[in-house]
Amino acid sequence: MLKLAVFPYEPYVVIEPRGIDSYSYMGSEMKILETFSQYVNASISPVINQADYWGEIWNNWSGSGLMGNLVEDKADIGAAALYTWEFAYEYLDLSKPTVRTGITCLVPAPKLSAGWLTPFRVYSLEAWMALIGTLALSFLALYALNKLQISVKPQLKSKHHINQLKGKLLSKTLMSVSKPFVMQSITNKEMAQGNLAKYLMGLVFLSTLVLSTTFDSGLATIMTVPRYDNPINTIEELAESGLSWGGTQDAWILSINNSLEPNLMKLVARFVAHSEANLRKYSLGDQFAFGVERLPNDNYAIGAYIKEDVIQNYHLMTQDIYWEMCVVMMRKSSVLLTEVDKFVLRVFEAGLISYWQNEAINLYA
């Protein structure tokens, strides 16, 4: 008899009671173990520790959860999204990989941007600064040129007349520069005099032609595609958001615990392990992110605490935090390792692992 260390975790392991000491098995890794037992002509008995999930291994060769059952010889073979953890290899044997999985997060869905901000999102901050700088330089250059022309005009003998012109110069220059940028025509009185001033105004007109075209195109784009405030799609954005994230156990961060990458260090520090009841409470709010697994064929492994009534409030990150390979684990120096490796490679090559995974998702999702 093969004793299987497992716990229910869709779509890897699905166990349904069918009577006294009788179970129905489903899921990609549970079917690997069940089919392997048939291959070696052995019966199976599940050893389930639902409370401790993946568990821990301690230095005295004891432990808790699934891995504890293996290291203490309470089970012969185990699987349920077990990764290639370095610390586990000191105590257990790891099989060939069964499937690749990416760890990402369900984060609170971003909110639509305020409508009055829409025109300001046409350009980036740098582009707006360049636009303001262009306006300011045009204004200063035209103002200085007009002021110089007034001062050197020989026909202006009256000091009072010169002061009147200088008083109107500021508003005239401001209107001459700003009107083209808002697609308004300039009157003859507002038009700058002199060849040099006309060349300068020609540059202003060319600038406004380019800017108005790009602004119209950009505005049409953002009016078509909704814009959201601070969406979280990458590791950097999650790290900078300040959100805490978590799961049922710190097994979610075992693969990146010793990482020296700054963003991963921030995420490890903000990871919190909670019970399913507490995670369910957090899911009703919008200040917490949840670890999920991105599997092949656009499938996902999501905790049971994420229910249909809250899923619309969350958004799936497009980037994985990290990725891992799932394995089957056995006690150290197990005689089963060689046969398990051969069997895993054969069922993977035949596409059975993907088939069993899709089957479990279609039946239990």
From TrEMBL:
The chain crosses the membrane at residues 127-145, 199-223. One of its GO terms (molecular function) is ligand-gated monoatomic ion channel activity. Keywords: Cell membrane, Glycoprotein, Ion channel, Ion transport, Ligand-gated ion channel, Membrane, Receptor, Transmembrane, Transmembrane helix, Transport. The keyword Ion transport applies. Residues 7-110 form the Ionotropic glutamate receptor L-glutamate and glycine-binding domain. Coiled coil: none annotated. It comes from the Eukaryota. It is found in: Cell membrane. It is a multi-pass membrane protein. One of its GO terms (cellular component) is plasma membrane. InterPro entries: Glu/Gly-bd, Insect_Ionotropic_Sensory_Rcpt. This is Ionotropic glutamate receptor L-glutamate and glycine-binding domain-containing protein. It comes from Dendroctonus ponderosae.
